[in-house]
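Practice problem: Pentatricopeptide repeat-containing protein
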Amino acid sequence: MYYNQTKKPSLLFLNLLQVLKAIEEGFIHFESMQKEYRISLKIDHYLGVLAISRKSGHLDQALEYILTLPFEPTSEIWEAVMNYARIHGDIDPNDRAEEILINIDPSNIDLKKIPTPLPKKFPTINMLEGKNRVSE
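Answer key — structure tokens:
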């Protein structure tokens, strides 16, 4: 199979980003793509960095990273965040990403989705006070 010389390093780094699990190492390779190899970054490279954050369980860092992107995050990026949040069981980032995704592309509305109920607020009761209430 014939590869163009300009695409080969880009594909190599894309595969490397998908395999890595350490965030620090991923960002080192990501920065070297731009500085040393002068590769023009595409959406797949940014999604690779998000995948590294998901694998290591740092979804908060992924959200911070999205806010610093040099372009407006696309629906693909917010879908990835939403899926990563579901995998890790984080409801807040999932809801936030879904809300932004619907604002970007209203066709992504899932009509069958059951809305997440609001958390119940329990009054804070001292255990001794609770015990006294039961015995009264």
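Discussion: Helices lie at 7-19, 23-35, 43-56, 59-67, 75-88, 91-104, 127-135. Students who identified this feature from the tokens alone can consider the problem solved.
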